[in-house]
Design a protein that fits this description.
Blueprint lengths: L2 H28 L11 H14 L8 H8 L12 H15 L1
């Protein structure tokens, strides 16, 4: 997978996560709910992540891609030093080391 496509894919995935959070919050306000309802799109999101993992040979436990998404909040968390580009470079290095 080319670097530009990987970075674009991660950015689009981040946008979807952010959009879903905003939508859930707005729906909660509109329906006067105590909790935010989330549209369950995890089937397609999980499959998209799996495709990225397979393409990048990300077979680590835990997956570097999953860690970047959930633990590092796409590189936005205070303890993260990653960006999508750094993640891509690290995955390519690991892939080359395993070949």
């Amino acid at each position: 997978m080319e670097k530009e496509l990987f970075i674009e894919s991660m950015l689009q995935l981040q946008k979807q996560y952010e959009y879903d959070a905003i939508y859930a919050q707005q729906l909660s306000v509109a329906l006067m709910l105590d909790e935010e309802p989330y549209y369950n799109n995890h089937f397609i999101i999980n499959q998209f992540i799996k495709i990225l993992q397979v393409q990048m040979n990300d077979d680590a436990e835990p997956s570097l891609i999953e860690h970047f998404i959930s633990e590092e909040d796409f590189g936005k968390s205070p303890h993260s030093t990653n960006t999508a580009e750094i993640l891509y470079n690290n995955l390519i290095l690991r892939k080359n080391e395993n070949n």
